[in-house]
Amino acid sequence: MERILDVRELSISFGGLRAVDDFSLELKKGELVGLIGPNGAGKTTVFNMLSGIYAPTEGRIFFAAAGTMQDITGLPSHKIARMGIARTFQNIRLLKQRTVLENVLVSFHHSLRYNIVDALFRTGRYYQEEKTMKEEALELLSTFGIADKAEEQAQNLPYGEQRKLEIVRALAVHPSLLLLDEPAAGMNPQETKALMEIINFIHREFDLTVLLIEHDMNLVMNVCQRLIVLDYGKIIAKGLPEEIKANPDVIKAYLGEEV
Ligand SMILES: Nc1ncnc2c1ncn2[C@@H]1O[C@H](COP(=O)(O)OP(=O)(O)OP(=O)(O)O)[C@@H](O)[C@H]1O
Q1: Taking Cα atoms as reference points, which of 87, 89, 37 lies closest to residue 217?
Q2: Cβ(37) to ligand 1 under 6 A?
Q3: Which residue numbers delimit the ABC transporter domain (predicted)?
Q4: Whose CA is nearest to atom 2 of ligand 1?
Q5: Are 54 and 12 in contact (CB under 8 A)?
Q6: What separation, in Å, do the N-terminal and C-terminal C-alpha atoms of the chain show?
């Protein structure tokens, strides 16, 4: 299978702290992989480097865009997003006082096909694009079961639905790689179960590669095809969920936490 992401020996230091140390990872197109590890292990920092929020101190990131592997190391996050990497955040980032639909439409605008002239003069193409975007946004929202909330303010949605809306916003930019940072955080068991189904569904239907950070071991073990385990910034294990569950180094790293 074709590669979509090739991360080579990535490291980053904050002052004296090496938050991520020699992190390498290859993702094939269509994989659904989990990145796990105890609190502070460096998982979100890996996402921040992949999505262009931090430039790594060392190492390179290659990503398949426009038919070739391109070096995206240190590119600004808006460029990386346009190339096809979308992400969600551990702390939900929505336009809280805008409606649910507006939140999705703003994301669509980042991947627009009409130009500024079309927008200024309200050309036919502009109206056509706006209409298509709205239809597509509502379709995405209905996939997640929140289309009936389209006109509500985002801040009024229950927490689980705000998390879903974040994923919809990420999908609206038509990514080929989706990075999900703790999508089940703060969800109750029913919401988490529904989320597992949604992740499986979007992975299948949207032809996506997914890299997922998650502390909910039930979700991780059920959804991910393989796992990478970080501890103190270093990869301590890689493998199938069953192998990881039985790995003594992983159990030791999680000692005191639930595996
Ligand atoms: N901008 C920063 N400046 C200084 N230290 C940072 C910065 N970002 C992360 N760190 C440190 O890097 C380490 C890894 O943090 P990171 O948030 O990546 O861990 P994590 O595995 O995502 O943890 P959690 O599961 O709790 O979200 C931590 O010690 C953190 O304090």
Answers
A1: 37
A2: yes
A3: 5-257
A4: 14
A5: yes
A6: 31
Q: Is the CB of 211 under 6 A from ligand 1?
A: no
pLDDT digits (tens, 9 = 90+) for 26-52: 999 999 999 999 999 999 999 999 999
The ligand 1 atom at the shortest distance from the C-alpha of residue 233 is 14
Check whether 123 has a pLDDT greater than 80: no
Angstrom distance (rounded) from CA 245 to CA 110: 40
- What's the pLDDT tens digit per position in 139-150? 999 989 999 999
Q: For ligand 1, say whether the CB of 229 is within 6 Å of any of its atoms.
A: no
Smallest CA-to-CA distance from 19 within 243, 231, 198, 250 is with: 231
Q: What share of the chain is helix, strand, coil (3-state, %, to 5)?
A: 40, 25, 35
What ipTM, to 2 d.p.? 0.95
Q: Is the CB of 44 under 6 A from ligand 1?
A: yes
The closest of 216, 180, 247, 213 to 36, measured between CA atoms, is 213
* 19 Cβ below 6 A of ligand 1: yes
Protein residue whose Cα sits closest to atom 23 of ligand 1: 40
